[in-house]
Design goal:
The chain is an alpha/beta fold. It is built from 17 helices and 16 strands. It folds into two domains: about 100 residues, Roll (Urease, subunit C, domain 1); about 280 residues, Metal-dependent hydrolases (TIM Barrel), CATH 3.20.20.140. About 40% of the residues lie in helices and about 20% in strands. The termini are far apart. Bound molecules: zinc ion (ZN). The site of zinc ion has 6 residues, from loops.
Length: about 425
């Protein structure tokens, strides 16, 4: 049976509107509703709310929520080798499920309905995504030093058999990075992604150490490495992209690939700053991600949006990256890369949205709602979150949240023993 919802008197683009959602799509946004549109519809009073696109997190490691605050105040190499990788080796599939649940709770509460996940035991993360009602691009992750040949082959088989995909979940080929997957294996994964029609996502040009080792081993930059192997195209996206040369930016822009910037994680790990003003000038496709909870240390896309807008102005001029453009980096730009018709409040688009409380002190006064949302507000202004036409948070409550926190605390206590 068709499900109808009317968001009544929502503040949108400067005026109050009634917005009709039929099943999982926006049916009427710009046109006035007819009396028949209200029939059999759930009417949601939005007279105190502005409607905003929900967030699409272009890069994270969801279950690392369990390692939030576990090791801080050190650079990436030491952080990974001495703290993160040895502890991750102890994580069981059950732990991954608990961590994914905590991460998705945090994402929903901060307005995110989609995430790109690079991690292990993906079947458990997929299960939690399905249960909690949001979307994800789940990585089938490859890293030579962290995997047996049998585990590698099992991942390849999994991708060939296309198991795990659904209406809200897609699989993505994810070589971890240039320093964990060599030339031969990277070439094989590019061929596999091409043959099986998957997108590729990886960490790229994150630190100066990566640039130096890539140059010593392959005589080129990480971007040139991917170009040489034929992997750089509109189906390729990369996280970080901090240390791009002028030539890298040109190559990347021409390829149609998408750069997912993670400014908070880069700043915290002292990896450097993505040259966002130059990237915009050179016409790169740009999205945003948070990276994991243990390097950020949250999954709040609103903070990331503000950080990139400020960084763009610091590196460019006060006019670089206006609020609405920063919002696109956190919403439709990421959805576009993954082929998801979402990230905008538009007729025909998937019904993913946020209801922002206009009585929140940071939304008052309201000369420009996008200005308030990008520069002034935080996630406490989000009253409700809708994904695929269904509310996953209402009145700031998510079903089962108390139990999710209890399980996460117990799991973290076991890990720290
Ligand atoms: Zn990452």
């Amino acid at each position: 049976m068709t499900k109808k919802t009317v968001l009544k008197s929502a503040f949108f683009e400067g005026s109050k509107r009634d917005i009709l959602i039929v099943d999982n799509r926006f049916e009427k946004v710009h046109t006035a509703l007819e009396p028949a549109d209200y029939q059999d519809a759930e009417i949601v009073d939005c007279s105190n709310f502005a409607i905003m696109p929900a967030f699409y997190n272009g890069h994270t490691h969801a279950a690392m929520s369990l390692l939030r605050g576990f090791a801080d105040d050190m650079e990436l190499g030491k952080w990974l080798n001495e703290y993160i990788w040895p502890t991750e080796a102890k994580l069981t599939p059950d732990d991954i499920e608990v961590g994914s649940r905590l991460a998705i709770l945090e994402m929903i509460k901060s307005g995110t309905v989609f995430f790109t996940d690079m991690y292990w035991h993906r079947e458990r993360t997929i299960k939690v995504v399905e249960e909690m009602g949001i979307r994800a691009a789940i990585g089938v992750t490859f890293a030579e030093p962290l995997m047996s040949p049998e585990a590698w082959a099992a991942n390849v088989d999994f991708l060939k058999n296309h198991t795990g995909e659904s209406e809200r979940v897609q699989l993505v080929v994810m070589p971890h990075a240039i320093y964990t997957v060599g030339e031969e294996k990277t070439a094989e994964l590019i061929e596999l992604a091409h043959a099986e029609h998957y997108k590729i996502h990886t960490h790229l040009s994150e630190t100066l150490f990566e640039i130096k080792t890539c140059n010593e081993k392959y005589g080129c930059t990480p971007v040139e490495f991917w170009k040489r192997l034929g992997g750089l195209n509109s189906n390729f996206s990369a996280a970080h992209c901090v240390h791009f040369s002028a030539s890298d930016r040109k190559i990347f822009a021409e390829s149609g690939a998408t750069a997912i910037l993670n400014p908070c994680s880069n700043l915290k790990l002292s990896s450097g700053m993505p040259q966002v003003a130059e990237m915009l000038k050179d016409g790169l496709k740009l999205g945003l991600g948070t990276d994991g909870d243990s390097s950020n240390n949250n999954l709040d896309m609103q903070e990331e949006m503000k950080a990139i807008a400020l960084l763009a102005k610091y590196l460019g001029t006060a006019e670089t990256l206006p609020a609405e453009e920063a919002l696109k980096m956190a919403t439709c730009n990421v959805a576009n890369f993954f082929g998801i018709n979402a990230g905008k409040i538009e007729e025909g688009y998937l019904a993913d949205c946020l209801l922002i409380d206009m009585n929140n002190e940071r939304m008052v006064p309201c000369y420009n709602v996008y200005s308030n949302w990008v520069y002034a507000a935080n996630s406490s202004a989000i009253d409700s979150v809708m994904c695929n036409g269904k509310f996953v948070m209402r009145g700031r409550h998510v079903d089962g949240e108390e139990e999710i926190l209890r399980e996460a605390r117990e799991c973290a206590a076991r890990l720290s023993k």
